[in-house]
Each structure stands twice: as C-alpha cells, then as structure tokens.
UniProtKB/TrEMBL annotation:
Domain TRAF-type: 22-75
Ranges annotated as TRAF-type zinc finger: 22-75
Protein origin, superkingdom: Eukaryota
The organism's taxonomic lineage, starting at the top: Eukaryota, Sar, Alveolata, Dinophyceae, Suessiales
Protein name: TRAF-type domain-containing protein
PROSITE patterns: ZF_TRAF (PS50145)
Xref: InterPro entries: Znf_RING/FYVE/PHD (IPR013083), Znf_TRAF (IPR001293)
Transmembrane segments: none
Length: 190
C-alpha cells in the first residue's frame, strides 16, 4: 500500500523501483514543497490550489495602489501590513490633533500637514510654537516698536495703538517666505 494514503494498493510482485517511482513522482497525495512560500507537507494534488488561492507569498495586486504585493501583506488582520502601514493610498487621519478632521491618502499627508491650521509652527523671531492659525494674531515680544511697516512706513508702536499688529508671516508650502525675506515686516492691514 502507498505510504501517502492515496488508496493505491501495490499488486504483489511490484518492484521497489516502481513503488519508489509512484511515491516520489506519481502519487497525487505525496508531500511537496511550495517554491514560493517554502511550506512543506502540501499534497501534490492540492499544490495548484495552494499556489493560486492560499499561498501567503503569492503576488496579488493591491486594489488601492495597484502594486504587486504578497498575499500575506494584503490580508486584513495581524499580517495585513501593506494595507495598514505600506500602501501609499491607505487612508490616514491628520496627526495634528483631534481638532483637524482631515483624512485622505497617506501620500498626500505631507501636503496637508504643510497647510493644516492645527499644525504647530515656530515664530521665526521668538521661536514660540503656535498652531498655524494662531500665528496671524501672534504678538511677538521681540519686535521693536521703533521698526516700521515696509508698506505703510508707520512704526509698530503707532500701528499697535490703532489695534493693527505686525504680521509675522511664515514659510509657505512651496518653500518661499510670505515676506520680503530680508526679515522685513509689514502690518496686517498691508
């Protein structure tokens, strides 16, 4: 009888060579190894099904980014690493706190962060960290009242008496400064 329980009974007088050939090359129940994932003890008759439907190393197309990724990285659960951590199209939430309701593809997260009103930015003069939306109203303690607005030429002291603070403008997402970059300042009215 076949060692692999395929149901074949060898007729008496079957040579060892024929038995070996059946067990190693012909038996549909013989154990084989998947070349992709190296799993052993797969029955030969089940190998094609394993490779096309179950093999964790089988390359499949991600339905979000269309890259070829191993099945084990696409499956949800503990091993769904691609969809949870690698896919550039996975949906993520803004990391700047609960106030921001933005969510979108991971690959656009940096673009959002450069404009998010809830991201922290640093005052270029006093280095205080503020939310981006707070920067417009920030009254920097390092601005000298004798300095003048480069547009209307009034001093900061005169502008502040009128309730118009200086605008400490910050870096734009394209890397340029919204002021003349010689650290010249203008008031919010200008």
């Amino acid at each position: 009888e076949c060692n692999w329980n395929c149901g074949l009974s060898f007729p008496s007088g079957t040579s060892k060579k024929d038995k070996h050939k059946h067990r190693s090359e012909e038996c549909p129940a013989r154990p084989v190894r998947c070349e992709k994932c190296q799993t052993t003890d797969i029955k030969f008759k089940d190998l094609e099904l394993h490779e096309t439907e179950m093999c964790p190393a089988q390359l499949l197309e991600c339905d979000q980014c269309h890259l070829q990724v191993e099945r084990k990285k696409l499956e949800l659960g503990a091993q769904g690493e691609h969809k949870l951590n690698e896919c550039e199209q996975r949906i993520v939430r803004c990391q700047n706190g609960d106030e921001c309701t933005w969510s979108g593809p991971w690959q656009t997260c940096n673009m959002h962060d450069e404009k998010c009103p809830f991201a922290y930015v640093e005052c270029p003069e006093c280095l205080e960290r503020l939310h981006r939306w707070e920067m417009r109203e920030h009254l920097c303690p390092l601005i000298d009242g004798a300095d003048v607005c480069i547009v209307c030429t009034e001093t900061w002291a005169e502008r502040l008496q009128k309730g118009v603070p200086p605008a400490l403008l910050i870096m734009e997402s394209n890397g340029t400064c919204r002021r003349a970059c010689g650290h010249l300042r203008m008031c919010l009215d200008c």
